[in-house]
Amino acid sequence: MIEVIPKKRDLNAPVRKWQRLRIDIRVKMWRSEKSDDAIVGRTCVMSEGGLSVRVPKSMEIGTNVLVEFLLPGTARELWLPALIRNRCGFRCGMEFMDVAPSDRTLIRRYLQSLVSEPSEVKNAEADHAAKANQLQRRQNGQPLQSC
């Protein structure tokens, strides 16, 4: 299921540059271009400017990586440099760096095609209910699901 992550409504909250979507795609990452040790993971969230990935190794904030993935329905693998901006356990958020305009266009069109399929987009009311459920779990001391 594809889920649009709604923009924050708090007027004091930072405004995101790109819309984020929950997407599950296989990715490979390398900490350096010369490394033979690929780290294989799955995306949690993707936007035109970056993605969030679950990987089996902890990644340090500030690490430069090379990310490889294939967008479903496209014939071209993308190889994008990225910078680890945040992490939570084995989930890391990264920003794409120096993306070619053709690659950014491919990502944008792919994400727009997902949003234009309303049957696959989780509506805002369901998202609100899920967040309320997470808040209630947090208040009751129950474990939360993340990513």
Structure description:
The structure is a single chain. With 147 residues, the protein is an alpha+beta fold. The protein is 21% helix and 34% strand. The chain is built from 2 helices and 8 strands. A 6-stranded antiparallel beta barrel has the order 3-4-5-8-7-6. The protein starts with a strand and ends in an 8-residue tail after the last helix. The relative contact order is 0.17. Mean pLDDT is 78; it is low at 119-126.
What labels would you give this structure?
147 residues, alpha+beta, six-stranded antiparallel β-barrel, 2 helices, 8 strands, globular
Topology:
Blueprint: E1 3-5, E2 20-22, E3 26-30, E4 39-47, E5 50-54, E6 64-70, E7 77-88, E8 91-96, H1 101-115, H2 124-139
Antiparallel strand pairs: 1-2, 2-4, 3-4, 3-6, 4-5, 5-8, 6-7, 7-8
Number of helical segments with 4 or more residues: 2
CATH topology: Thrombin, subunit H
Order of strands across the main sheet: 3-4-5-8-7-6
Class by alpha and beta content: alpha+beta
